[in-house]
Amino acid sequence: MITTENYMEIESRLNSELKAQSGYEDWMYFSIKPIEGAQDKFTVGYLVPTSHGVSTDKDLAGCMAIYNPVLQKVLS
Question: Phi/psi zone of residue 40: left (φ > 0), alpha (ψ -120 to 50 degrees), beta?
Fold first, then answer.
């Protein structure tokens, strides 16, 4: 569970686990941000190449195939 006390640690764990995934590219990352005005609610974001002009052969499905297992492992 993400809390105000651990969200930065969880973000670090997500990114460490992400780097260990087959298919990882150095532009990939997770970010966790508190939702303004909502106590103990957070957004978990990830970079996709189409939204930031990254040059890669991965499409959204390919990216999500790498991101989703990391999210499930760390957040479950």
Answer: left
The whole-angstrom separation of Cα 39 and Cα 30 is 21
- How far, in Å, CA of 46 to CA of 70, rounded? 11
| Tokens 């930031």, located at residue | 52
| In a domain? residue 17 | yes
Beta strands in the chain (DSSP E): 30-34, 42-46
Whether the predicted pLDDT of 52 surpasses 70? no
Distance CA 38, CA 56 (A): 36
Over 90: is that where the pLDDT of 30 sits? yes
Question: What does pTM read for this prediction?
Answer: 0.89
In a domain, 2, yes or no: no
Q: Is residue 1 part of a domain?
A: no
Q: Which domain holds residue 16?
A: 7-75
